[in-house]
Protein backbone atom coordinates (compact mmCIF):
# COMPACT_ATOMS: atom_id res chain seq x y z
CA UNK A 1 0.00 0.00 0.00
CA UNK A 2 2.71 2.48 0.96
CA UNK A 3 4.89 1.67 -2.05
CA UNK A 4 3.54 4.81 -3.75
CA UNK A 5 5.29 6.91 -1.09
CA UNK A 6 8.54 5.15 -1.92
CA UNK A 7 7.96 5.87 -5.60
CA UNK A 8 7.47 9.56 -4.72
CA UNK A 9 10.48 9.69 -2.40
CA UNK A 10 12.38 11.85 -4.93
CA UNK A 11 9.76 14.57 -4.49
CA UNK A 12 9.61 14.33 -0.71
CA UNK A 13 13.42 14.65 -0.58
CA UNK A 14 13.25 17.85 -2.66
CA UNK A 15 10.55 19.37 -0.43
CA UNK A 16 11.45 17.76 2.88
CA UNK A 17 11.25 21.06 4.79
CA UNK A 18 7.66 21.66 3.69
CA UNK A 19 6.54 18.16 4.66
CA UNK A 20 8.56 18.13 7.90
CA UNK A 21 6.86 21.35 9.02
CA UNK A 22 3.43 20.05 8.01
CA UNK A 23 3.84 16.69 9.77
CA UNK A 24 5.33 18.30 12.90
CA UNK A 25 2.41 20.74 13.15
CA UNK A 26 -0.02 17.90 12.53
CA UNK A 27 1.53 16.10 15.49
CA UNK A 28 1.15 19.21 17.68
CA UNK A 29 -2.48 19.66 16.62
CA UNK A 30 -3.19 15.97 17.26
CA UNK A 31 -1.84 16.33 20.78
CA UNK A 32 -3.78 19.55 21.46
CA UNK A 33 -7.05 18.06 20.15
CA UNK A 34 -7.02 15.27 22.76
CA UNK A 35 -6.71 17.75 25.63
CA UNK A 36 -10.35 19.02 25.70
CA UNK A 37 -11.88 15.57 26.47
CA UNK A 38 -9.46 15.17 29.39
CA UNK A 39 -10.29 18.65 30.69
CA UNK A 40 -14.00 17.87 30.29
CA UNK A 41 -13.56 14.72 32.38
CA UNK A 42 -11.85 16.69 35.15
CA UNK A 43 -14.59 19.34 34.94
CA UNK A 44 -17.34 16.67 35.31
CA UNK A 45 -15.58 15.09 38.30
CA UNK A 46 -15.31 18.48 40.02
CA UNK A 47 -19.01 19.15 39.38
CA UNK A 48 -19.93 15.64 40.57
CA UNK A 49 -17.84 16.04 43.73
CA UNK A 50 -19.05 19.62 44.40
CA UNK A 51 -15.59 21.20 44.15
CA UNK A 52 -16.26 23.53 41.16
CA UNK A 53 -15.75 27.24 41.94
CA UNK A 54 -16.18 30.39 39.83
CA UNK A 55 -12.43 30.72 39.46
CA UNK A 56 -12.12 27.10 38.28
CA UNK A 57 -15.01 27.59 35.78
CA UNK A 58 -13.29 30.66 34.32
CA UNK A 59 -10.06 28.67 34.14
CA UNK A 60 -11.70 25.87 32.15
CA UNK A 61 -13.40 28.32 29.77
CA UNK A 62 -10.12 30.23 29.23
CA UNK A 63 -8.19 27.03 28.50
CA UNK A 64 -10.81 25.91 25.97
CA UNK A 65 -10.72 29.30 24.18
CA UNK A 66 -6.91 29.33 24.01
CA UNK A 67 -6.87 25.77 22.66
CA UNK A 68 -9.43 26.71 19.94
CA UNK A 69 -7.37 29.68 18.73
CA UNK A 70 -4.04 27.81 18.79
CA UNK A 71 -5.51 24.76 16.99
CA UNK A 72 -7.04 27.05 14.34
CA UNK A 73 -3.76 28.85 13.60
CA UNK A 74 -1.66 25.69 13.51
CA UNK A 75 -4.23 23.89 11.32
CA UNK A 76 -4.17 26.78 8.82
CA UNK A 77 -0.37 26.55 8.64
CA UNK A 78 -0.08 22.79 8.18
CA UNK A 79 -2.84 22.71 5.56
CA UNK A 80 -1.07 25.43 3.58
CA UNK A 81 2.23 23.54 3.72
CA UNK A 82 0.81 20.09 3.01
CA UNK A 83 -1.65 20.85 0.22
CA UNK A 84 0.71 23.42 -1.26
CA UNK A 85 3.16 20.55 -1.70
CA UNK A 86 0.43 18.47 -3.36
CA UNK A 87 -0.16 21.22 -5.94
CA UNK A 88 3.59 21.41 -6.56
CA UNK A 89 3.85 17.68 -7.31
CA UNK A 90 0.85 17.92 -9.64
CA UNK A 91 2.53 20.70 -11.59
CA UNK A 92 5.92 18.92 -11.49
CA UNK A 93 4.54 15.64 -12.80
CA UNK A 94 2.56 17.32 -15.57
CA UNK A 95 5.64 19.26 -16.67
CA UNK A 96 7.81 16.16 -16.50
CA UNK A 97 5.20 14.17 -18.41
CA UNK A 98 4.90 16.79 -21.15
CA UNK A 99 8.68 17.08 -21.43
CA UNK A 100 8.90 13.29 -21.74
CA UNK A 101 6.30 13.21 -24.52
CA UNK A 102 8.22 15.88 -26.44
CA UNK A 103 11.27 13.58 -26.49
CA UNK A 104 9.39 10.57 -27.78
CA UNK A 105 9.76 9.32 -31.35
CA UNK A 106 6.91 8.14 -33.63
CA UNK A 107 7.45 4.57 -32.42
CA UNK A 108 6.17 5.56 -28.98
CA UNK A 109 3.02 7.20 -30.31
CA UNK A 110 2.33 4.20 -32.52
CA UNK A 111 2.23 2.05 -29.38
CA UNK A 112 0.23 4.45 -27.15
CA UNK A 113 -3.21 5.84 -27.84
CA UNK A 114 -3.70 9.59 -27.55
CA UNK A 115 -6.73 9.18 -25.27
CA UNK A 116 -4.78 7.07 -22.79
CA UNK A 117 -1.91 9.57 -22.77
CA UNK A 118 -4.42 12.33 -21.99
CA UNK A 119 -5.96 10.27 -19.19
CA UNK A 120 -2.54 9.92 -17.60
CA UNK A 121 -1.98 13.68 -17.79
CA UNK A 122 -5.33 14.39 -16.11
CA UNK A 123 -6.86 11.63 -13.97
CA UNK A 124 -3.65 9.85 -13.02
CA UNK A 125 -1.78 13.01 -12.09
CA UNK A 126 -4.80 14.16 -10.06
CA UNK A 127 -4.84 10.83 -8.19
CA UNK A 128 -1.18 11.36 -7.25
CA UNK A 129 -2.02 14.91 -6.12
CA UNK A 130 -4.55 13.43 -3.68
CA UNK A 131 -1.93 10.94 -2.50
CA UNK A 132 0.63 13.67 -1.76
CA UNK A 133 -1.99 15.84 -0.03
CA UNK A 134 -4.95 14.02 1.45
CA UNK A 135 -3.01 10.74 1.52
CA UNK A 136 -0.25 12.15 3.75
CA UNK A 137 -2.91 13.78 5.95
CA UNK A 138 -4.80 10.54 6.45
CA UNK A 139 -1.55 8.68 7.02
CA UNK A 140 -0.61 11.00 9.88
CA UNK A 141 -4.13 11.10 11.33
CA UNK A 142 -4.57 7.34 11.12
CA UNK A 143 -1.27 6.72 12.91
CA UNK A 144 -0.08 9.64 15.09
CA UNK A 145 -3.55 10.82 16.13
CA UNK A 146 -4.63 7.24 16.79
CA UNK A 147 -1.47 6.59 18.79
CA UNK A 148 -1.95 9.73 20.92
CA UNK A 149 -5.60 8.85 21.64
CA UNK A 150 -4.54 5.33 22.57
CA UNK A 151 -1.99 6.68 25.05
CA UNK A 152 -4.54 9.05 26.58
CA UNK A 153 -7.07 6.23 26.95
CA UNK A 154 -4.52 3.84 28.39
CA UNK A 155 -2.62 6.14 30.78
CA UNK A 156 -5.30 8.60 31.89
CA UNK A 157 -8.34 6.27 31.97
CA UNK A 158 -7.81 2.50 32.08
CA UNK A 159 -5.63 0.06 30.19
CA UNK A 160 -8.18 -2.70 30.81
CA UNK A 161 -11.01 -0.72 29.24
CA UNK A 162 -8.77 0.32 26.30
CA UNK A 163 -7.70 -3.25 25.58
CA UNK A 164 -11.28 -4.49 25.66
CA UNK A 165 -12.53 -1.71 23.37
CA UNK A 166 -9.77 -2.33 20.80
CA UNK A 167 -10.45 -6.06 20.41
CA UNK A 168 -12.49 -5.69 17.14
CA UNK A 169 -9.92 -3.44 15.42
CA UNK A 170 -7.34 -6.05 14.21
CA UNK A 171 -10.15 -7.78 12.28
CA UNK A 172 -11.07 -4.45 10.71
CA UNK A 173 -7.43 -3.84 9.68
CA UNK A 174 -7.29 -7.19 7.86
CA UNK A 175 -10.53 -6.43 6.00
CA UNK A 176 -9.22 -2.98 5.00
CA UNK A 177 -6.12 -4.60 3.49
CA UNK A 178 -8.30 -6.91 1.41
CA UNK A 179 -10.37 -3.97 0.19
CA UNK A 180 -7.19 -2.09 -0.78
CA UNK A 181 -5.90 -4.91 -3.00
CA UNK A 182 -9.21 -5.11 -4.86
CA UNK A 183 -9.36 -1.31 -5.26
CA UNK A 184 -5.88 -1.25 -6.89
CA UNK A 185 -6.80 -3.89 -9.46
CA UNK A 186 -10.18 -2.39 -10.37
CA UNK A 187 -8.90 1.20 -10.48
CA UNK A 188 -6.21 0.21 -13.01
CA UNK A 189 -8.91 -1.24 -15.27
CA UNK A 190 -11.14 1.82 -14.82
CA UNK A 191 -8.33 4.20 -15.79
CA UNK A 192 -7.48 2.13 -18.87
CA UNK A 193 -11.15 2.18 -19.93
CA UNK A 194 -11.25 5.95 -19.44
CA UNK A 195 -8.19 6.28 -21.69
CA UNK A 196 -9.88 4.22 -24.42
CA UNK A 197 -12.97 6.42 -24.18
CA UNK A 198 -10.81 9.55 -24.50
CA UNK A 199 -9.23 8.12 -27.62
CA UNK A 200 -12.64 7.38 -29.12
CA UNK A 201 -13.80 10.95 -28.47
CA UNK A 202 -10.68 12.37 -30.13
CA UNK A 203 -11.16 10.17 -33.19
CA UNK A 204 -14.83 11.09 -33.48
CA UNK A 205 -14.15 14.82 -33.24
CA UNK A 206 -11.24 14.65 -35.69
CA UNK A 207 -13.24 12.57 -38.15
CA UNK A 208 -16.62 14.23 -37.71
CA UNK A 209 -16.72 15.30 -41.37
CA UNK A 210 -16.16 11.75 -42.57
CA UNK A 211 -18.73 10.40 -40.10
CA UNK A 212 -21.35 12.84 -41.36
CA UNK A 213 -20.45 12.28 -45.01
CA UNK A 214 -21.11 8.54 -44.62
CA UNK A 215 -24.17 9.12 -42.39
CA UNK A 216 -22.58 7.12 -39.56
CA UNK A 217 -23.64 9.39 -36.69
CA UNK A 218 -25.88 6.77 -35.11
CA UNK A 219 -23.19 4.07 -35.38
CA UNK A 220 -20.63 6.37 -33.79
CA UNK A 221 -23.04 7.30 -31.00
CA UNK A 222 -23.74 3.62 -30.37
CA UNK A 223 -20.01 2.81 -30.26
CA UNK A 224 -19.42 5.71 -27.87
CA UNK A 225 -22.34 4.62 -25.69
CA UNK A 226 -20.83 1.14 -25.45
CA UNK A 227 -17.51 2.61 -24.32
CA UNK A 228 -19.14 4.92 -21.76
CA UNK A 229 -21.07 1.95 -20.38
CA UNK A 230 -17.78 0.09 -20.02
CA UNK A 231 -16.21 3.06 -18.19
CA UNK A 232 -19.32 3.35 -16.01
CA UNK A 233 -19.34 -0.35 -15.10
CA UNK A 234 -15.64 -0.37 -14.25
CA UNK A 235 -15.98 2.76 -12.10
CA UNK A 236 -19.05 1.32 -10.40
CA UNK A 237 -17.01 -1.78 -9.57
CA UNK A 238 -14.48 0.55 -7.92
CA UNK A 239 -17.26 2.45 -6.12
CA UNK A 240 -18.73 -0.80 -4.77
CA UNK A 241 -15.52 -1.56 -2.90
CA UNK A 242 -15.03 2.09 -2.00
CA UNK A 243 -18.51 2.20 -0.45
CA UNK A 244 -17.66 -0.71 1.85
CA UNK A 245 -14.91 1.19 3.69
CA UNK A 246 -17.02 3.55 5.80
CA UNK A 247 -19.80 1.09 6.81
CA UNK A 248 -17.20 -1.52 7.78
CA UNK A 249 -15.31 1.00 9.89
CA UNK A 250 -18.47 2.27 11.56
CA UNK A 251 -19.53 -1.30 12.32
CA UNK A 252 -16.30 -2.14 14.13
CA UNK A 253 -16.09 1.25 15.86
CA UNK A 254 -19.70 0.69 17.01
CA UNK A 255 -18.64 -2.64 18.47
CA UNK A 256 -15.85 -0.82 20.31
CA UNK A 257 -18.45 1.65 21.61
CA UNK A 258 -20.64 -1.14 22.99
CA UNK A 259 -17.69 -2.77 24.67
CA UNK A 260 -16.51 0.59 26.04
CA UNK A 261 -19.91 1.51 27.46
CA UNK A 262 -20.67 -1.91 28.92
CA UNK A 263 -17.28 -2.70 30.40
CA UNK A 264 -16.74 0.98 31.35
CA UNK A 265 -19.98 1.06 33.39
CA UNK A 266 -18.84 -2.08 35.17
CA UNK A 267 -15.49 -0.44 36.07
CA UNK A 268 -17.33 2.66 37.40
CA UNK A 269 -19.46 0.47 39.68
CA UNK A 270 -16.25 -1.25 40.83
CA UNK A 271 -14.76 2.22 41.56
CA UNK A 272 -11.80 1.51 39.25
CA UNK A 273 -12.53 4.63 37.17
CA UNK A 274 -14.55 7.80 37.80
CA UNK A 275 -17.64 8.99 35.94
CA UNK A 276 -15.56 11.80 34.40
CA UNK A 277 -13.00 9.28 33.15
CA UNK A 278 -15.76 7.20 31.55
CA UNK A 279 -17.09 10.30 29.77
CA UNK A 280 -13.57 11.17 28.58
CA UNK A 281 -13.08 7.61 27.38
CA UNK A 282 -16.27 7.66 25.33
CA UNK A 283 -15.33 11.00 23.82
CA UNK A 284 -11.99 9.49 22.84
CA UNK A 285 -13.85 6.56 21.29
CA UNK A 286 -15.87 9.07 19.29
CA UNK A 287 -12.67 10.78 18.21
CA UNK A 288 -11.45 7.39 16.98
CA UNK A 289 -14.08 7.41 14.23
CA UNK A 290 -12.07 9.91 12.15
CA UNK A 291 -8.74 8.03 12.40
CA UNK A 292 -10.56 4.82 11.52
CA UNK A 293 -12.29 6.47 8.56
CA UNK A 294 -8.97 8.08 7.67
CA UNK A 295 -7.39 4.63 7.69
CA UNK A 296 -10.03 3.40 5.24
CA UNK A 297 -9.58 6.48 3.04
CA UNK A 298 -5.83 6.01 3.31
CA UNK A 299 -6.09 2.54 1.83
CA UNK A 300 -8.30 3.88 -0.95
CA UNK A 301 -6.20 6.96 -1.79
CA UNK A 302 -2.88 5.11 -1.59
CA UNK A 303 -4.05 2.29 -3.85
CA UNK A 304 -5.43 4.74 -6.41
CA UNK A 305 -2.24 6.77 -6.25
CA UNK A 306 -0.13 3.62 -6.54
CA UNK A 307 -2.07 2.46 -9.61
CA UNK A 308 -1.75 5.89 -11.24
CA UNK A 309 1.96 6.11 -10.40
CA UNK A 310 2.49 2.70 -11.98
CA UNK A 311 0.78 3.91 -15.16
CA UNK A 312 2.90 7.08 -15.26
CA UNK A 313 6.12 5.22 -14.49
CA UNK A 314 5.40 2.84 -17.35
CA UNK A 315 5.36 5.87 -19.67
CA UNK A 316 8.41 7.47 -18.02
CA UNK A 317 10.36 4.22 -18.34
CA UNK A 318 9.95 4.24 -22.14
CA UNK A 319 13.23 5.39 -23.64
CA UNK A 320 13.24 7.08 -27.04
CA UNK A 321 14.74 4.81 -29.69
CA UNK A 322 16.66 7.77 -31.15
CA UNK A 323 18.97 9.60 -28.74
CA UNK A 324 22.24 11.47 -28.85
CA UNK A 325 25.20 9.09 -28.97
CA UNK A 326 28.24 9.19 -26.72
CA UNK A 327 30.77 10.30 -29.37
CA UNK A 328 29.21 13.50 -30.70
CA UNK A 329 30.92 15.76 -33.23
CA UNK A 330 30.40 19.43 -34.00
CA UNK A 331 29.36 20.41 -37.51
CA UNK A 332 28.99 24.14 -38.05
CA UNK A 333 27.20 24.10 -41.41
CA UNK A 334 25.54 21.13 -43.14
CA UNK A 335 27.28 20.67 -46.44
CA UNK A 336 26.95 17.54 -48.59
CA UNK A 337 24.37 14.91 -47.57
CA UNK A 338 25.49 11.38 -48.44
CA UNK A 339 23.42 8.19 -48.35
CA UNK A 340 25.67 5.13 -48.50
CA UNK A 341 23.82 1.87 -49.16
CA UNK A 342 21.16 2.80 -46.60
CA UNK A 343 18.58 0.15 -45.81
CA UNK A 344 15.73 0.87 -43.39
CA UNK A 345 12.74 -1.00 -42.01
CA UNK A 346 10.12 0.31 -39.61
CA UNK A 347 10.23 -1.21 -36.07
CA UNK A 348 6.76 -2.70 -36.56
CA UNK A 349 7.54 -4.22 -39.97
CA UNK A 350 9.70 -7.08 -41.17
CA UNK A 351 10.03 -5.81 -44.73
CA UNK A 352 12.50 -3.11 -45.72
CA UNK A 353 10.91 0.27 -46.55
CA UNK A 354 14.17 1.47 -48.17
CA UNK A 355 16.83 -0.71 -49.76
CA UNK A 356 20.38 0.18 -50.79
CA UNK A 357 19.76 3.92 -51.07
CA UNK A 358 22.96 5.50 -52.38
CA UNK A 359 23.28 9.13 -53.54
CA UNK A 360 24.91 12.43 -52.63
CA UNK A 361 23.46 15.96 -52.54
CA UNK A 362 25.92 18.88 -52.36
CA UNK A 363 25.16 21.97 -50.31
CA UNK A 364 22.87 24.39 -52.15
CA UNK A 365 21.45 21.77 -54.50
CA UNK A 366 17.80 20.89 -55.03
CA UNK A 367 16.76 17.25 -54.79
CA UNK A 368 13.54 16.02 -56.36
CA UNK A 369 12.01 12.72 -55.24
CA UNK A 370 9.16 11.16 -57.20
CA UNK A 371 7.53 7.77 -57.41
CA UNK A 372 4.29 5.87 -56.99
CA UNK A 373 2.26 6.12 -53.80
CA UNK A 374 4.01 4.03 -51.13
CA UNK A 375 7.31 3.99 -52.96
CA UNK A 376 9.22 5.38 -49.94
CA UNK A 377 9.43 9.14 -50.52
CA UNK A 378 8.28 10.17 -47.04
CA UNK A 379 10.37 7.41 -45.45
CA UNK A 380 13.45 8.79 -47.21
CA UNK A 381 12.81 12.26 -45.74
CA UNK A 382 12.35 10.79 -42.24
CA UNK A 383 15.90 9.45 -42.34
CA UNK A 384 17.24 12.99 -42.39
CA UNK A 385 14.89 13.92 -39.54
CA UNK A 386 16.09 10.89 -37.51
CA UNK A 387 12.58 9.95 -36.46
CA UNK A 388 13.57 6.29 -36.40
CA UNK A 389 16.82 4.49 -35.54
CA UNK A 390 19.03 3.39 -38.43
CA UNK A 391 22.24 1.48 -38.76
CA UNK A 392 25.47 3.38 -38.19
CA UNK A 393 27.48 5.01 -40.97
CA UNK A 394 24.83 4.85 -43.66
CA UNK A 395 23.90 8.55 -43.68
CA UNK A 396 26.45 11.38 -43.53
CA UNK A 397 26.25 15.18 -43.31
CA UNK A 398 29.47 17.06 -44.08
CA UNK A 399 31.24 13.70 -43.91
CA UNK A 400 30.07 13.10 -40.31
CA UNK A 401 27.74 10.17 -39.54
CA UNK A 402 24.29 11.54 -38.71
CA UNK A 403 24.19 9.58 -35.44
CA UNK A 404 27.28 11.56 -34.29
CA UNK A 405 25.52 14.91 -34.78
CA UNK A 406 23.53 16.24 -31.77
CA UNK A 407 19.79 15.94 -32.41
CA UNK A 408 19.12 19.55 -31.39
CA UNK A 409 21.71 20.82 -33.86
CA UNK A 410 20.46 18.55 -36.64
CA UNK A 411 16.86 19.68 -36.27
CA UNK A 412 17.89 23.34 -36.04
CA UNK A 413 19.12 23.06 -39.65
CA UNK A 414 15.89 21.64 -41.02
CA UNK A 415 12.60 23.21 -42.06
CA UNK A 416 9.99 20.50 -42.62
CA UNK A 417 6.62 20.64 -44.36
CA UNK A 418 4.99 17.20 -44.05
CA UNK A 419 2.24 15.69 -46.19
CA UNK A 420 -0.34 16.17 -43.44
CA UNK A 421 -0.01 19.81 -42.46
CA UNK A 422 -0.81 20.66 -38.87
CA UNK A 423 -1.89 24.16 -37.86
CA UNK A 424 -2.39 25.28 -34.28
CA UNK A 425 -5.71 26.73 -33.12
CA UNK A 426 -4.26 30.24 -33.21
CA UNK A 427 -4.09 33.09 -35.70
CA UNK A 428 -2.38 32.87 -39.08
CA UNK A 429 0.33 35.19 -37.75
CA UNK A 430 1.06 32.94 -34.77
CA UNK A 431 1.13 29.83 -36.94
CA UNK A 432 3.71 31.31 -39.31
CA UNK A 433 5.81 32.83 -36.51
CA UNK A 434 5.95 29.41 -34.84
CA UNK A 435 8.94 28.75 -37.10
CA UNK A 436 10.72 31.85 -35.74
CA UNK A 437 8.89 33.74 -32.97
CA UNK A 438 11.28 36.72 -33.02
CA UNK A 439 11.03 37.31 -36.79
CA UNK A 440 10.61 40.85 -38.08
CA UNK A 441 7.34 42.01 -39.64
CA UNK A 442 9.10 42.39 -43.00
CA UNK A 443 10.22 38.74 -42.96
CA UNK A 444 6.71 37.63 -42.06
CA UNK A 445 5.13 39.26 -45.10
CA UNK A 446 8.05 38.26 -47.33
CA UNK A 447 7.59 34.52 -46.68
CA UNK A 448 3.84 34.95 -47.16
CA UNK A 449 4.55 36.35 -50.61
CA UNK A 450 6.97 33.52 -51.38
CA UNK A 451 4.35 30.95 -50.36
CA UNK A 452 1.71 32.80 -52.44
CA UNK A 453 -0.69 33.08 -49.50
CA UNK A 454 -0.84 36.89 -49.15
CA UNK A 455 -3.72 37.37 -51.60
CA UNK A 456 -5.84 34.72 -49.81
CA UNK A 457 -5.20 36.27 -46.39
CA UNK A 458 -6.25 39.71 -47.61
CA UNK A 459 -9.72 38.31 -48.37
CA UNK A 460 -10.24 37.32 -44.72
CA UNK A 461 -12.12 39.77 -42.51
CA UNK A 462 -9.35 39.82 -39.88
CA UNK A 463 -6.49 39.33 -42.31
CA UNK A 464 -3.40 37.84 -40.74
CA UNK A 465 -5.09 37.86 -37.33
CA UNK A 466 -7.70 35.37 -38.50
CA UNK A 467 -8.11 32.36 -36.23
CA UNK A 468 -7.60 29.20 -38.27
CA UNK A 469 -9.57 26.96 -35.91
CA UNK A 470 -8.54 23.54 -34.64
CA UNK A 471 -6.07 21.97 -37.08
CA UNK A 472 -6.84 24.77 -39.55
CA UNK A 473 -10.45 23.66 -40.02
CA UNK A 474 -11.51 27.06 -41.42
CA UNK A 475 -8.94 26.93 -44.24
CA UNK A 476 -8.78 25.00 -47.49
CA UNK A 477 -6.16 22.33 -48.08
CA UNK A 478 -4.15 24.60 -50.36
CA UNK A 479 -4.21 27.45 -47.84
CA UNK A 480 -3.01 25.18 -45.06
CA UNK A 481 -0.16 23.93 -47.26
CA UNK A 482 0.97 27.43 -48.14
CA UNK A 483 0.84 28.63 -44.51
CA UNK A 484 2.90 25.57 -43.55
CA UNK A 485 5.43 26.43 -46.27
CA UNK A 486 5.63 30.03 -44.99
CA UNK A 487 6.18 28.69 -41.45
CA UNK A 488 9.12 26.61 -42.66
CA UNK A 489 10.58 29.39 -44.81
CA UNK A 490 10.58 32.02 -42.05
CA UNK A 491 13.04 29.81 -40.19
CA UNK A 492 15.40 30.19 -43.15
CA UNK A 493 16.65 26.62 -42.70
CA UNK A 494 19.84 25.24 -44.16
CA UNK A 495 17.85 22.25 -45.43
CA UNK A 496 14.20 22.59 -46.49
CA UNK A 497 12.12 19.43 -46.80
CA UNK A 498 8.87 19.73 -48.79
CA UNK A 499 7.13 16.38 -48.57
CA UNK A 500 4.38 16.55 -51.20
CA UNK A 501 3.67 20.05 -49.83
CA UNK A 502 2.20 21.38 -53.08
CA UNK A 503 -0.34 18.67 -53.83
CA UNK A 504 -3.38 20.82 -52.91
CA UNK A 505 -2.49 23.85 -55.05
CA UNK A 506 -3.07 24.30 -58.76
CA UNK A 507 -0.26 23.99 -61.31
CA UNK A 508 0.04 27.75 -61.82
CA UNK A 509 0.39 28.46 -58.08
CA UNK A 510 2.78 25.54 -57.73
CA UNK A 511 5.05 26.94 -60.46
CA UNK A 512 4.97 30.39 -58.82
CA UNK A 513 5.92 28.97 -55.39
CA UNK A 514 8.69 26.77 -56.81
CA UNK A 515 10.13 29.75 -58.68
CA UNK A 516 10.07 31.88 -55.51
CA UNK A 517 11.74 29.16 -53.44
CA UNK A 518 14.50 28.71 -56.03
CA UNK A 519 15.27 32.42 -55.95
CA UNK A 520 14.98 32.72 -52.17
CA UNK A 521 17.09 29.68 -51.30
CA UNK A 522 20.13 30.08 -53.52
CA UNK A 523 23.08 28.41 -51.82
CA UNK A 524 20.84 26.33 -49.52
CA UNK A 525 19.66 22.75 -49.88
CA UNK A 526 16.05 21.93 -50.78
CA UNK A 527 14.39 18.53 -50.97
CA UNK A 528 11.04 18.23 -52.77
CA UNK A 529 8.89 15.10 -52.90
CA UNK A 530 5.97 15.35 -55.31
CA UNK A 531 3.53 13.47 -57.50
CA UNK A 532 3.52 16.17 -60.19
CA UNK A 533 6.72 16.04 -62.19
CA UNK A 534 6.50 19.79 -62.83
CA UNK A 535 7.29 20.44 -59.14
CA UNK A 536 10.74 18.81 -59.46
CA UNK A 537 11.57 19.58 -63.09
CA UNK A 538 14.08 22.26 -62.05
CA UNK A 539 15.87 20.03 -59.50
CA UNK A 540 19.61 19.41 -59.79
CA UNK A 541 19.07 15.72 -59.06
CA UNK A 542 15.84 13.76 -59.41
CA UNK A 543 15.38 10.34 -57.83
CA UNK A 544 12.63 7.96 -58.91
CA UNK A 545 11.70 5.50 -56.16
CA UNK A 546 9.86 2.23 -56.54
CA UNK A 547 9.28 -0.18 -53.66
CA UNK A 548 11.93 1.57 -51.56
CA UNK A 549 14.63 1.47 -54.21
CA UNK A 550 16.10 4.04 -56.58
CA UNK A 551 15.15 2.91 -60.08
CA UNK A 552 16.01 6.11 -61.97
CA UNK A 553 18.16 9.17 -61.24
CA UNK A 554 19.41 12.26 -63.04
CA UNK A 555 18.29 15.70 -64.19
CA UNK A 556 14.98 16.28 -65.94
CA UNK A 557 16.64 16.16 -69.34
CA UNK A 558 18.57 12.98 -68.51
CA UNK A 559 15.47 11.21 -67.25
CA UNK A 560 13.49 12.21 -70.32
CA UNK A 561 16.19 10.66 -72.49
CA UNK A 562 16.01 7.43 -70.47
CA UNK A 563 12.40 7.07 -71.59
CA UNK A 564 11.44 5.35 -68.32
CA UNK A 565 8.71 5.83 -65.68
CA UNK A 566 9.58 9.51 -65.17
CA UNK A 567 9.35 10.30 -68.89
CA UNK A 568 6.05 8.43 -69.16
CA UNK A 569 4.49 10.26 -66.19
CA UNK A 570 5.78 13.67 -67.23
CA UNK A 571 4.43 13.27 -70.77
CA UNK A 572 1.06 12.06 -69.50
CA UNK A 573 0.74 14.92 -67.01
CA UNK A 574 1.66 17.49 -69.65
CA UNK A 575 -0.96 16.07 -72.03
CA UNK A 576 -3.59 16.19 -69.24
CA UNK A 577 -2.63 19.79 -68.50
CA UNK A 578 -2.96 20.74 -72.17
CA UNK A 579 -6.36 19.08 -72.41
CA UNK A 580 -7.59 20.96 -69.34
CA UNK A 581 -6.30 24.25 -70.74
CA UNK A 582 -8.05 23.64 -74.08
CA UNK A 583 -11.26 22.72 -72.29
CA UNK A 584 -11.15 25.99 -70.34
CA UNK A 585 -10.62 27.94 -73.58
CA UNK A 586 -13.58 26.21 -75.19
CA UNK A 587 -15.85 27.01 -72.25
CA UNK A 588 -14.75 30.65 -72.13
CA UNK A 589 -15.08 31.16 -75.94
CA UNK A 590 -18.17 33.28 -76.79
Automatic annotation (TrEMBL):
Gene3D superfamilies: ABC transporter type 1, transmembrane domain, P-loop containing nucleotide triphosphate hydrolases
GO CC terms: plasma membrane
Location relative to the cell: Cell membrane
Keywords: ATP-binding, Cell membrane, Membrane, Nucleotide-binding, Transmembrane, Transmembrane helix, Transport
InterPro entries: AAA+_ATPase, ABC1_TM_dom, ABC1_TM_sf, ABC_transporter-like_ATP-bd, ABC_transporter-like_CS, P-loop_NTPase, Type_1_exporter
CDD domains membership: ABC_6TM_TmrB_like
Name of the protein: ATP-binding cassette, subfamily B
Amino acid sequence: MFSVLRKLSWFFKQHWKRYTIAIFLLFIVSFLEVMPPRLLGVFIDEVHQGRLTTERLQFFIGIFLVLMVVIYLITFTWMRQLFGGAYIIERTLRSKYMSHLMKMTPTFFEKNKTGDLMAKATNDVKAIYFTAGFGVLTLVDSTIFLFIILIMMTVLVSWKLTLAAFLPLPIMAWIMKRYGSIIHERFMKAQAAFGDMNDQVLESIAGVRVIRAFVKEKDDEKRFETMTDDVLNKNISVAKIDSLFEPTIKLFVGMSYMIGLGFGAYLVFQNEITLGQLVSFNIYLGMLIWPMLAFGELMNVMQRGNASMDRLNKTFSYKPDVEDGSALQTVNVPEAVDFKQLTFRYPSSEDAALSNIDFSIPQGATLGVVGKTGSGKTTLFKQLLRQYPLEEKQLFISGVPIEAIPLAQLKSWIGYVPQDQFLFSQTIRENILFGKPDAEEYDLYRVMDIASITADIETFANGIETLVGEKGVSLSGGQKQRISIARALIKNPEILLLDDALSAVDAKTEAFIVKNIREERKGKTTWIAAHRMSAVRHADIILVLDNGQIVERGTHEELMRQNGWYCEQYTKQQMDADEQENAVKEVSRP
